[in-house]
Amino acid sequence: MYSAIRRNKVNSVLIILLFIVIVGGLGWLAAYIYRSPGIVIAVVVISIGYAAIQYFAAGKQAISMSGAQRISEADNPRLYRIVENLSITTGTPMPEVYIVNDPAPNAFATGRDPAHAMVAATTGLLDIMTDSELEGVMAHELGHVRNYDIRVSMIVYGLVVAIGMIADVMMRIAFFGRSNNNSNPVVLVFGLVAMIVAPLIATIVQLAVSRQREYLADATGALTTRHPEALASALHKLSEYGRPLQKQSSSMAHLWIADPLKPGMMQKLFATHPPIPDRIRRLLDMGGKF
Predict the structure, then answer these.
(1) Where are the transmembrane segments (predicted)?
(2) Annotated catalytic, 84?
């Protein structure tokens, strides 16, 4: 487990470097096409500044996009005390606790480290889970916090948003740029390639860090509660009652414990989560070892 935490910290650095390299490469191409070396310098400086802002602000941004509302113990004693007990058990700082008003059962964690972590559960999750199942789900989310998955996820989230913005800007330059550039076919090809390739790169990065992260958080949650069957039962309910969130965002889909998007061919092909039956099987296999 400690090696996984160390690997997540290394991945955070590598993802930031990858982000700067991709954006810098796009800036270099734009500078080459427009014959203005200042463009690449400006793009790299802006990208570094953007990465720094994302490091400190992406967690709050994800909370805002999900529509989650922060609660105190008085607002929902059941959820708050479960998170508090898990935090005391694991020696983890108490995270901020949020509730998302959505009938779809789901939960996620975000933040840059355990001292600045946030966990959220939907009202749908609170409605269908027993106490032991809810404890298993929140132990899974605190597993993301303890393993520093939240930092990697947050950086990936910022990367996906940034690449989407760059792809959009490139497309606009290609089709609606200055009139003297409209006749340049290189500009049009550049915009089209950026528009098609950039989101694919973002998706590949999401897939690379998301699937194993879920297995590790399941194992961490089971180790915390010593009751892997409860988390397995919760995952079974999520698969049975699973439905897309009302307020969907593909850029933060990898943060949730279950895929929050409406299922479709492309979502299945580029799924950010491992199959729930595989996760349940691993947990049940783990149960006999406690």
Answers:
(1) 12-33, 39-58, 154-175, 187-209
(2) no
